[in-house]
Amino acid sequence: MTARLAQIARYPIKGIGTELLETVILDQDAPMPGDRAWALRHETAPEELGWLPRKNFLVVASGPALAPVRARTETDGRIALSHPDRPDIAIAPSSDGPALIDWVRPLWPDTAPAPRLLVPAPPQGMGDNGRAELSILSLASLRALEERIGQPLQIARFRGNLILDGLAPWAEFDWIGQRLRIGDVELEITERITRCRATEASPETGQRDAEPVRALHTGWGHRDFGVYARVTKGGMIATGNEVTPI
Fold first, then answer.
1. Count of alpha carbons within 13 Å of 92, Cβ hemisphere only?
2. What's the rounded Cα separation, in Å, for the pair 5 and 50?
3. How many Å separate Cα 53 from the centre of its chain?
4. Interior CA angle at 168 toward 166 and 174, to 5°?
5. pLDDT tens string for the chain (246 positions)?
6. Which residues, other chains included, contact 112 with Cβ-Cβ below 8 Å and sequence gap of 6+?
7. Of the candidates 147, 161, 134, 137, the residue with the CA atom closest to the CA atom of residue 216
8. Would you say 167 and 216 are in contact if contact means Cβ atoms under 8 Å apart?
9. Integer Cα distance of 92 and 74 in angstroms
10. Cβ count within 10 A of residue 1
11. Closest listed residue to residue 9, CA positions, set 177, 175, 157
């Protein structure tokens, strides 16, 4: 079976909302456009702007009820958000931070630091590794993890950008230091992605109902799922594109 790009996803506000795409244009040495372009800082985070570790923001690892949030970027730049337990909202990120805070507050644990300020990401984005990279996941590896854990899992738990199908399980780990071609784009695979408790939250219910990190550790002796990649040649990609090692 030929490996293909099965899904494209981005997360306009870090930790708050998944947006699925059919096509996207990627630039060299840049994150996916609109991916983690904003982040909602909490009250104990440092005041300075720029990249900060995820512990300073509202994220699914600390607030599992955020997992079901869906996002859509409107043509006017507003970000529309929906959640099963909240009314739909559309915000202009540069001016509607207080409205987002009011909307998200019922989804955020009272025991966690309160949301305080919606901030823009630096040029490299607000990805967890602090670099201008994308994350690549494999559905074959997900199926291996599902078999190990004994229950279905949604790939959305892992909040990846490019979801591939047609590989052997864990084949992506052998790509470190190598390059791939997807559509017009070329990417260099840089490192594996170590996972956290965010993966425990169902993107359908917002409840912690599985322990993928524990299953990774007991099954394979690590906590890794997916790989990071740097865009070395920009261009357009679309779901269904063939994935070719270079």
1. 4
2. 31
3. 15
4. 115
5. 689 999 999 999 999 999 999 999 999 999 999 999 999 999 999 998 899 999 999 999 999 999 999 999 999 999 999 999 999 999 999 999 999 999 999 999 999 999 999 999 999 999 999 999 999 999 999 999 999 999 999 999 999 999 999 999 999 999 999 999 999 999 999 999 999 999 999 999 999 999 999 999 999 999 999 999 999 999 999 999 999 999
6. 42, 62, 63
7. 147
8. no
9. 10
10. 8
11. 157
User: Can you say whether residue 170 is alpha, beta or left, with left for phi > 0 and alpha for psi between -120 and 50 degrees?
Assistant: left
Q: Do the beta carbons of residue 189 and residue 232 sit within 8 Å?
A: no
- Within a 10 A sphere around the Cβ of 101, how many other Cβ atoms? 17
Length of the chain: 246
Which tokens is 33 given? 């456009």
